[in-house]
Amino acid sequence: MEIPVVSEANLSAYSPFWLIAVFYLFSGIWEVGHLFKPEGFRKQWVDLLPFTAFILHSLFVIYLAYRVQNIPVTNLFESVVFLTWCVVAVFNGVEYLYGVPSLGAFLFPLVTVLSFWVLSLGNNVFNAPHNLSKFWLIAHTIPLFMGYAAFAITFTLSLMYLTQQRQLKHKLFGPLLLGLPSLESLDRLIWKTLSFGFPLLTLGLVFGAFWVKHSNMLGPQWYLDPKVVMGTVTWLVYAGLLHLRIGVAMHGSRAALLNIAGFSLVLFTFLGTFFIGAQHGYKKVSKEEPVIIKRIAE
């Protein structure tokens, strides 16, 4: 079985993502500019820049997948690249189905921050510490990441809801108010994206639990791993949000604030747990310490 070496030379394969990050940066700038000054930022570029960025991003994900012969989540860089791709893919789906005005103006700044943050890791790679089974990795990762992506859209719509509510409350009848959907439309979309993301999150966590139990990759007390614990907490939070929505018909700013808090928890679960000793995470490796990792098991 071929064993690739993670080294400084290998890291150069990640450099094309700089171009993609720049495209997302300009997409965000143009989207925000079009929201505030539609006459100065032409609509065709609002459509073209994000589309170009997504096509380049898709090609890069395919390239990374070819390198590892599986889903590209063997280190933190690849995982963030794949997660941001999922976010933009769900964004495109929501745009196609519902045509939400100005959604990109609120979403692409988040995508840009994540893109440049992962590039700022420089010559440090955070590698997955365990051999990864192809079947379980696909079954666990795809629904989980798509669920996280749906929650990213829910988070963005919640920000838009609070912004629109503030504009109306203070009677700020400017381009921002006119460029945002109505509160009723935003509330319905928040519910739809939340309802889409929760079953995917559930499926990803269930497959993940089967995976770690079957492989014994985290030991007999796998359920105490910080990432597993935080994943369970995240599931409970979103289950609670759905219950409040269905059971007590909670709407408005409280629901939006809770969705923002829920997505903050998603980001901590995804990125923050490896700082507190999660085995189900990534180990830091610098260019001075090249390591050998096995190709993902078939």
Mean of pLDDT: 82
* Overall 3D shape: globular
Please count the helical segments: 10
Terminal Cα span: 10 Å
Instruction: Report the sheet-strand fraction.
Output: under 5%
Task: Give the radius of gyration.
Answer: 20 Å
Widest β-sheet, arrangement of strands: 1-4
Tally of discrete structural domains:
1
Counting helices, strands and paired strands, the structural category is: mainly alpha
SSE string: EHHHHHEHHHHHEE
Q: Low-confidence stretches at least 5 residues in length (pLDDT < 50)? A: 1-9, 286-298
How helix-rich are the residues, as a percent range?
A: 55-70%
Number of strands: 4
Give a short account of the largest sheet: 2 strands, antiparallel
Quick recap of the structure?
This protein is mainly alpha-helical. The protein has ten helices and four strands, in the order βαααααβαααααββ. The longest helix has 36 residues.
Describe the structure in your own words.
It is a single chain. The protein is mostly helical and 298 residues long. The chain has one domain (5-292). The chain is 69% helix and 3% strand. The protein has ten helices and four strands. Helix 6 (134-169) packs antiparallel against helix 10. The chain is globular, with a radius of gyration of 20 Å.
